[in-house]
Amino acid sequence: MKPTDRRRRPAVRHPVLSGLAVLVTVAAGCSIDPDAGPRAVPPDQRGQLGAVEQEAGQSTGTSRVFLVSDDGSGRVLQSVPRDVAETPTDVLGALFAGANREETEAGLVSALPGDGQVLSARQVAGTLNVDLSPEILELENSALSFAVAQIVFTADELDGVRAVRLRVDGESRAWPTGGGELTSSTLTVYDFPGYAESAQPAYPAVPTETVP
Q1: In which domain, by residue range, is 178 found?
Q2: Tell me: the pLDDT tens digits for 72-130?
Q3: Does a structural domain hold residue 18?
Q4: Report field, pTM of the whole predicted structure over 0.85
Q5: Distance, CA of 84 to CA of 100 (rounded, Å)
């Protein structure tokens, strides 16, 4: 009979279990301890918190907004479609979003400030009362005239709107008309003659009676 080998054999380590043990150890060392209380977010990390960028819509739909055609031959308002609900808030919101890429490439721009906002838009009878953020007051001269005209012509497309009253932060202001005068009264498209391209076809010549 062979003598019994009493030497202890080395333990065999299972490779899968060993790997799991290493992962648990690494994960434990890299865990993030919860904050004991509120902490300030660094300024360079605040920009992505709830930021929503307003983008111009596609040139489709039944609603219409007015942009500025600036092809070098003279500026004029031109209407473009937007696929939004035909309500004052939605349509004016689409207007303030500006021109989309295709419209910009076609020479259309907006005179309205890019960071401007419509605070409220309420229709009372035939007048649309629009409250704007103060960025529009940074515009001067013809830029302000075209910006106001864009709002007025766009609002005129809404059902039942015949005039527009503009305010800034709830306060009345004097606004330039197409003739350069300032007025704090309601505005209509007739205050901006020649600002928008005509959608009417050319009138045919008056027929004349021919003499045989």
Answers
A1: 63-191
A2: 778 999 999 999 999 999 999 999 999 999 999 999 999 999 999 999 999 999 999 99
A3: no
A4: no
A5: 15
